[in-house]
From TrEMBL, chains A, B:
Taxonomic source organism: Acer saccharum
Domain Tetrahydrofolate dehydrogenase/cyclohydrolase NAD(P)-binding: 117-265
GO terms (BP aspect): photorespiration; tetrahydrofolate interconversion
Keywords: Hydrolase, Multifunctional enzyme, NADP, One-carbon metabolism, Oxidoreductase, Photorespiration
Subunit structure: Homodimer.
Entry keyword annotation includes Oxidoreductase: yes
Reactions listed under catalytic activity: (6R)-5,10-methylene-5,6,7,8-tetrahydrofolate + NADP(+) = (6R)-5,10-methenyltetrahydrofolate + NADPH
A GO cellular-component term linked to this record: cytosol
The protein's name: Methenyltetrahydrofolate cyclohydrolase
Family named by the database record: Belongs to the tetrahydrofolate dehydrogenase/cyclohydrolase family.
Domain Tetrahydrofolate dehydrogenase/cyclohydrolase catalytic: 4-96
Associated pathway: One-carbon metabolism; tetrahydrofolate interconversion
Oxidoreductase among keywords: yes
Gene Ontology MF terms in the entry: methenyltetrahydrofolate cyclohydrolase activity; methylenetetrahydrofolate dehydrogenase (NADP+) activity
Amino acid sequence: MKASIGKSPGLAVVSVGKRRDSHTFIRIKLKACDEVGIATLIEELPENCTEHQLLNVVSGFNENPLVHGIIVQLPLPQHLDEEKIIDSVSPEKDVDGFHPLNMGNLAMRGREPLFIPCASKGCIELLLRSGVEIMGKKVAVIGRSKIVGLPTSLLLQRHHATVSTVHAFTTNPEKITREADIVVSDVGIPNIVRGNWLKPGAFVIDMGTNRIKDPSSRNGYRVTGDVCFKEATKVVSAITPVPGGIGPITISMLLSNTLDSAKRAFIFP
Amino acid sequence: MKASIGKSPGLAVVSVGKRRDSHTFIRIKLKACDEVGIATLIEELPENCTEHQLLNVVSGFNENPLVHGIIVQLPLPQHLDEEKIIDSVSPEKDVDGFHPLNMGNLAMRGREPLFIPCASKGCIELLLRSGVEIMGKKVAVIGRSKIVGLPTSLLLQRHHATVSTVHAFTTNPEKITREADIVVSDVGIPNIVRGNWLKPGAFVIDMGTNRIKDPSSRNGYRVTGDVCFKEATKVVSAITPVPGGIGPITISMLLSNTLDSAKRAFIFP
């Protein structure tokens, strides 16, 4: 884009506080942007910043024509109203796809959201590129978080899967999961999905990112998914590993969303 | 409300063209408003009206402080962009709950939409008042229309049901439906849900409104649901009839949404 029209897409990242995992995620995102030529702006606010300060930062990025995408790194400290902050991001720059207007347009068939949440978009991309048919397939989505489980269910339904959502109140989650041709897990509990939860030949996307203690590791922990990988590999036709599976694809989708947004801005300024 | 604060809630209805079923629905809504003291305004546009004319009417109602709810009766004639018209209704007056912002907030747990679509809200009301536990129950929602199936799925999930959506591309819809404790149907095909699709003791809500020819009837047709009522009654613990089941409750929910909106307007003008 820089070479052809002399302009670059721009991504703004807002971070509050010093959570180590959040800073790791941000570093990965910034590095990826750098590699593909997306300009980045980062605003780091202290843990005890006020809602007003944070809203002001978002508002500044909303107005800034060099910024095509805005990420407010979640989770925010408890004293900040996450809902209000997310609603303050312009839907036209909401590259995370978390604004309710974009989520509503994702839910409603026949409409096109401006942005689809990155992990969910990555999940579909992975299925399509792996030649997995989605239409008519039974899918179990385990977990219903606003940022992964929910939009993934909605997106799979747009692709005409028959989706069942499994959550903490589901009786016999293993039974529903065992009937699914495609299983997507985003629970946040290590190894909750066992081998006997899975249908032979199923396609499994593990969205979990869980830290478990591991004294043998340099950091004292290692990252694992929701699915018991060792058991699953004996049953399923394919499974994404954690780490290294859906994570990098999610980052690619963030770059893709930012590029799409920049194209829209340059074509219809 | 009139007696206590001297003010009435107001509902505006916009209708385009002369579809007989639409006019029947509107007449029922206006009559119900009249009975409970909700003031009504109706604007009837000709079949061939322009999008600009329709948008102007909606915009007028958005601005009018006497109007607390706006309904644009669907479906609209093909030359009008339904999405654009729905988006033009102020989310604060969207008593149908069809605006993507309200739909997004319905989908996202922890958030509160200003309005929940009336048929879906009626469905939950019916379950709760009938003492049917929703949490943890397996629910099959057959059909995924934007105005009934989708919001009903989303709302049931908010109530912690384990929801499976069944649609035209679902293989073995009868199998999934047969496993459900609660079945909600909104397909628009008479008698598609047969007795052997249903689990013994299930609770069935039939949202279908289908006209079938009936020479013995005064109009030459009669209205029937999606579920084969005669077969279902032998299997299930309860089923809503069509007509007379979910329809009147849906109208009540419209009145309730309009009243809620008026209260918000009078308390925070």
